[in-house]
Amino acid sequence: MRDSTPLADRTAIVTGGASGIGRATAFLLARQGARVFAADIDFVAGTEADFAAENIAQIVCDVTNETDVAGLMEWAETQTGRLDIVVNSAGVGLVKQITDVTVEEWDRCLDTNVKGAFLTAKHAIPKMRAMGGGSIINIASNAGLLPRAHDPVYSISKGALIALTKSLALCHAPDRIRINAVCPGPVGETRMMDAGLAAAPDRATAVRELLAASPFANACGRMITPEEVAQAVLYLVSDAALFVTGTSIAIDGGKSLGVPPKMG
Ligand code: NAD
Fold it and tell me: How confident is residue 1, by pLDDT bands cut at 50, 70 and 90?
């Protein structure tokens, strides 16, 4: 019979857990039996009951702040006696050409998208190693597989996150800690996507262009959902993926494969 709670007794931390992919991942892991700590710099007011109903703790944490991150890991371990899974979903976008990017904007993007994953790895790995293993998932992007002209600094940050994933997977295989990346394409129902579309001169045109760049999304006539990305995370943290490490799984409807075919 299929185990309905395959993550029972496991402790998971999900950064960026207030919203979008992080929130969907936190809920999916909790429903699979994990004890989940959702960490975010900005929880949405009024969502406390939804998280509590799934027994998910909401922890305010800035992933760019080492004291916050160290405290988050310590709190989860103290509460449950374990730390098995860390999902780094906290991230910010930056749509600007390099000549217009300020040092502050560069730092915010790289600090959130890369330094955040460095800090969680730094503080999670000793705990996972002491337990005999663990699993870390970095939510990168199709932009990390194939850079995009409209957001070079974001693309750089996600490329670096994939490099971090491979390097740490190599270093920590002896500790039985698996480190993988998921590279989503256009994901709707996220604050990042909503902000991007709100900034576009014409929302319908922007959606059409986003779909056109992702041939399978175009064929389906819709964006990817946060829950569909969360399913890839669930596979990667599960025992079914025991020998999967250092990989980057694209959940992008083929966006990072190359120039898409013209659709009728
Ligand atoms: P989202 O904006 O809904 O979620 C990102 C979350 O990160 C937010 O809740 C935000 O408050 C949090 N966050 C930002 N800075 C933080 C910080 N310093 N400390 C803690 N939390 C912080 O958007 P999303 O699409 O769910 O984004 C999740 C991840 O997926 C991001 O890393 C993003 O780059 C990546 N991604 C998204 C898409 C997409 O189309 N939405 C595509 C590819 C990759």
Answer: low
Q: Look at ligand 1, atom 44, and give the residue with the nearest C-alpha.
A: 141
CA 91 – ligand 1 centroid, Å = 4
Q: Where are the domains of the chain?
A: 11-185+226-250, 190-223
Closest CA to 235 of 224, 247, 225: 247
Q: Phi/psi at 124 (nearest 5 deg)?
A: -90, -40
What percentage of residues in the chain have a pLDDT greater than 90?
Answer: 97
Our mutation pick for probing the ligand 1 site, out of 115, 187, 192, counting the most ligand atoms within 8 A of Cβ, is 192
**E runs forming strands in the chain:** 11-15, 35-40, 57-60, 85-88, 134-139, 177-184, 248-251
pLDDT in tens, 216-237: 999 999 999 999 999 999 999 9
Average pLDDT over every residue of 149-177? 98
Residue 239 has a pLDDT of 97
- Residue that has been written with the tokens 């966006």 in this structure: 255
Over residues 57-73, the pLDDT tens digits come to 999 999 999 999 999 99
Q: Measured in angstroms, how far is the CA atom of residue 92 from the centroid of ligand 1?
A: 6
| Residue ranges lining ligand 1, Cβ < 6 Å | 15-16, 18-22, 40-42, 61-64, 89-92, 112, 139, 141, 184, 186-187, 190-193, 226
- Cα 148 to ligand 1 centroid, rounded to whole Å: 18
CATH number of 11-185+226-250: 3.40.50.720
Is 235 one of the catalytic residues? Answer: no
Residue showing tokens 């663990």: 134
- The letter for the amino acid at 19 is S
